[in-house]
């Protein structure tokens, strides 16, 4: 447990003194916990994990390593206890139409999406959409969306930067393996990651050639604010908004073609 705690402290670039100040305990106490000379109570371990912003899954690992029972449940999204939470996810996805929105898990595997995602995925081979379909892999794979992305260098740099940040935050080896896989894909366009986006951008745009024409989106990420379940804490909803007037018009026209009485038509649940 002490080794795990020390790893999280270093990952957050904090000294023992920094953590002691944040947790309002002595530096000696932090040192004793990290070296195994002192075993913290559940309350103390939760306080330290909170100050270090340790994800719920890894908080459970700390508890187990300290000989304590895990604090947070982990249920599948189809569990009755998470029914209302999943209903909220679907409400956000469907309510975002005619614009694309999708829900992903901790490793960027697709959980569900609304009908406006379908035009974006047209032409993506089945092996990239087979469960569990990974949206980052489908985006950057040379047989996926990569050849249809108008700004492939910029978008690739954005994805890899975001993934590196997530790895730094969580220390997840699965994300590290995903990063190495994506980084090994051939770059379709040279791009200096130190370059600043154009001053015309308010965010890094996702530009794609599609059956609806050339589309440009900016995205937002939504997470549950106070999750107490591991699975729920790792769900993120990616919502795409038109980045220009042409995209807004194209998506409005697409939305007009959708059947208003069948919100589930075209929606995909990936294993939940």
Automatic annotation (TrEMBL):
Residues 5-59 form the HTH cro/C1-type domain. It comes from the Bacteria. InterPro entries: Cro/C1-type_HTH, Lambda_DNA-bd_dom_sf, MLTR_LBD. One of its GO terms (molecular function) is DNA binding. SMART domains: HTH_XRE. Coiled coil: none annotated. Gene3D superfamilies: 3.30.450.180, lambda repressor-like DNA-binding domains. This is Transcriptional regulator. The lineage of its organism: Bacteria, Pseudomonadati, Pseudomonadota, Gammaproteobacteria, Lysobacterales.
